[in-house]
Amino acid sequence: MGFIDEIKSNAKQNKKTIILPESEDKRTLQAAEVALKEGIANIILAGDPEKIAKDAKALGVDLTGASIVNPKTSDKLKSYIDLLVELRKAKGMTPEKARELLTTNFLYYGVTMVKAGDADGMVAGACHATADVLRPSLQILKTAPGTKLVSAFFLMVVPNCEYGENGLFVFGDCGLNQNPTSEELAAIAASSAKSFKSLAGKEPVVAMLSHSTKGSAKHADVDKVVEATRIAKENNPELKIDGELQLDAAIVPSIASSKAPGSDVAGNANVLIFPDLDAGNIGYKLVQRLAKAEAYGPLTQGIARPVNDLSRGCSFEDIVGVIAITAVQCQTNK
């Protein structure tokens, strides 16, 4: 059984409700059909029921079992308006502004639905930018208790790979924080380790990546990673974290033995923390395209309830995978 199949199996054990606010996108409708047929999650689609039915028929998609809610006519609209005003009144939110947001921007409706407990999580981003998905999430759901930073990671499943957890890795941050400080990198490392543990059920082994291994190069960028490693270890003494490590030293045992002897992380890392967004984004796309890896994400971590972003280049199969991952995150969300 492949990893994503295991995730789907886990999702089925305690089925959660996922809101998909991008019903105008055909990939979303196709993914909803698969998720429903496979029993991965209860699915809510936001949009005009007549248009959704018309689009589904044109695609040959069967949405039997999906709940379809029209934000403009929903009987929950008034309570959602009141909730949004209460949450954002200090920022000048009025009932009129709340009504407009909820009935014209379905991302806000979806997040408010999660906040109200009418859905467990949300998946969006097939036709919206990351900022558009995260803005209502941070405004309404806010950060999880004890979390200093919201970040993004990719779950990478590399075929025929002996490295990591049999080819399974978490890459962070590859989708959100442009040039994190040492403190922010340490927070990303802690969140990414938690994400790996919750999704893979295995011990996270975290490598703080750099172009240097254990002082082999001198530069301010290296110093940032060294300091991030120190902070991460201090704040998370129970975790296996080490750095600074070059990628080969992080995952290849034979190279680790010469470049970082004595490290309990080098050669065994399954969680890779990139020093900045450029490195992370380039890194995951190289692995995805050249190694033909499955790349699920950018998945968010640090938001109070599970909300996950999608790449706008995603396939409907990718969306199904993210629905399953989000459902499993909902199971472990406290």
Helix content: 40-55%
How many beta-strand runs? 11
CATH class of the largest domain: Alpha Beta
Which structural class matches the secondary elements?
alpha/beta
What characteristic shape results from the CA principal axes? Answer: globular
Task: Offer a concise description of the structure.
With 334 residues, this protein is of the alpha/beta class.
Q: Describe it for me?
A:
- Helices cover 47% and strands 16% of the residues.
- It is globular and about 65 Å long.
- Helix 4 (77-88) crosses helix 5 (95-104), helix 5 (95-104) crosses helix 6 and helix 6 (106-116) runs parallel beside helix 7 (130-141).
- The two termini are 28 Å apart.
- The chain has 2 domains: 3-142 and 304-332, Rossmann fold (3-Layer(aba) Sandwich), CATH 3.40.50; 151-290, Isocitrate/Isopropylmalate dehydrogenase-like (Rossmann fold, 3-Layer(aba) Sandwich).
- The strands form 2 sheets. It has a 6-stranded mixed beta sheet, with helices on both faces. Strands 3-2-1-4-11 form a 5-stranded parallel beta sheet, sandwiched between helices.
- The chain is α/β, with parallel strands linked by helices and 334 residues long.
- It is built from 13 helices and 11 strands.
